Amino acid sequence: MAKRRRLTLTMRMLLLVFIPLWALSAASIGIGTYYMAEQQTRKLKDDIKLIARAIRVPIGEAIEKGDLETVQRTLDAVFSIGQVYGASVYNKNGERIAAAGIARHDNDDNPLAEKMLKVGEDGDAYQHQAGRRVYSHFVPITGPNGQLPTMVEVTRKASDFSTSVDRIAYWAWGSWGLVGLMTLAIVLFGYRQAVGREMTRLINVMGEVGRGKLTQRAADNGSTEMAKIAKAFNQMLDDIETAQQEIKAHQAHEIALNQQLERQERMAALGRLVSGIAHELGAPLNVIDGRARRLARLDSDPKGQHELDAIRGQVGRLTRIVRQLLDFSRGGLQREWLRLAPLIESAIESVNYEQQSAQPNFNVSVPENIKVYIDQARFELVLVNLLRNACQAAQAQVGVEYHHADGKWQLSIWDDGEGIKGDINPEQLLEPFFTTKPKGKGTGLGLAIVHNVVHDHGGEMTFSHAEQGGLQVTLNFPEELT
Predict the structure, then answer these.
(1) 25, 26, 102, 342: which has the fewest C-beta neighbours closer than 10 Å?
(2) Beta strands 371-375; 397-405: pairing state
(3) In sequence order, what are the residues at sequence separation of 6 or more whose Cβ sits closer than 8 angstroms to the Cβ of residue 331?
(4) Tell me: the pLDDT tens digits for 219-263?
């Protein structure tokens, strides 16, 4: 199928606007030229008629007197007028009795004169004299005593009429062509100024958008119509941008949901695995610890006692790991309204009991009357793990602060240590078995347990840089839990 050729907007404007207007002006020029030619021809004929009527009386008087010389002088005087090409006087038989101009070269009688004499009235006609086409006007001659049986003829070249008409047509059609060309130039220039440049700018913007620059916008400060097109185009781009943002937000939400679901599934599977391992390890560790205590009572050798204490120390460490594993896999909450300050004091006491080196100073800023709706055992586990990490990282100070704002209550625990390294993503700290502590110093379950408990309470946990230089962990809980 042949491809249909489309016309440009310029060609459409020329075909639908300029050419019809130019054709209409041509019709107007043609009609006007026709009527102007008719008026010019009538004027030329009237001039000859007036001359003929002006000389008929003196010629008539001269004929009555038989003075043909005066008749001839009158005809010669008429011929001297630039508009007259020839003049003749005819008797009642149509015979030429006097002539001037071209009529001198025509020796034939004029049958028209005889015909006009019979009618006895003015008349005119185109004819040939001396081989040339002329226009003649016949007027009956009038003497002092009335109309005489003679006729005067005044002629003019027929080409005078066509020359006058051609001159009018030349100037009319020449002016039409010149005005048409000027109009065409004005139309094209006006189109370029009014539409062309704005259309080019809009096309350029569309090209930029097509190459992926969706932030481009068309200028809407032009003509009303082009401004409407530009605004509609910009609105379309805004709608596309909004739709893309919604799609990206939806995709990000789906990705987050999928990651959360994947993590929950992974944590659930890991919890089941950890629970089974912890139960299997619990009994052997109790047996080892019991046997070590029994041997310690039986053996008084200091070196043996030291070795048994080392065994019991490692068993204790393994026992704590098992307890953490069980806490990690534990589900369900048993909430109740509890004062927050005593829970924090109890957790600090437990952490102090574990510390073997110098203990940091605790700065606690928690109102005594604040109550929270929590699972006591699991929340104590959160506090102990966070405080233990802070104590291990701190140089001299650990702080606990309570805040309430924007429909949430917060609990922040910070230290003045070195903080986390720049190449570590805080999200990694929540992964099970990931730890920044030296080998043998941590299991990587503390923050994972804290995150699970906080999440079960409907809260969020964030990491930030503390003003004192170390790490700050902030727990955010909804107000309805207070």
Answers:
(1) 342
(2) unpaired
(3) 271, 456
(4) 777 777 777 877 888 888 888 888 888 898 888 888 888 877 776
DSSP labels for 156-188? EEHHHHHHHHHHHHHHHHHHHHHHHHHHHHHHH
Distance of alpha carbon 123 from alpha carbon 401, whole angstroms: 129
HSE-up of residue 414 (Cα within 13 Å, Cβ side): 20
> Measuring CA to CA, which residue among 345, 438, 330, 436 is closest to residue 384?
345
Q: What is the SS3 assignment for 218?
A: coil
Give me the helix-helix angle, 158-191 and 19-64, nearest 10°. 160
Are residues 126 and 119 in contact, defined by beta-carbon separation less than 8 angstroms? no
Q: Does the pLDDT at position 175 exceed 80? A: yes
3-state secondary structure of 120: coil
Contact call for residues 398 and 435 (beta carbons, < 8 A): no
CA 106, 107, 113, 117 dihedral sign is positive
Question: What value does the mean pLDDT take over residues 267-291?
Answer: 69
Please name each of the domains of the chain with its CATH number.
Answer: 9-168 (3.30.450.20), 217-330 (1.10.287), 332-481 (3.30.565.10)
β-strands 397-405, 361-365: how paired?
A: parallel
d(CA 187, CA 184): 5
State pTM to two decimals: 0.39
Residues 68-112 have pLDDT tens digits of 888 888 888 877 776 777 888 888 777 788 888 777 776 666 777
What contacts 382, CB < 8 A, 6 or more positions away?
449, 450, 453, 454, 475
Residue holding tokens 């005087």? 77
The residues with which 138 forms a beta bridge, in sequence order, are 123, 153
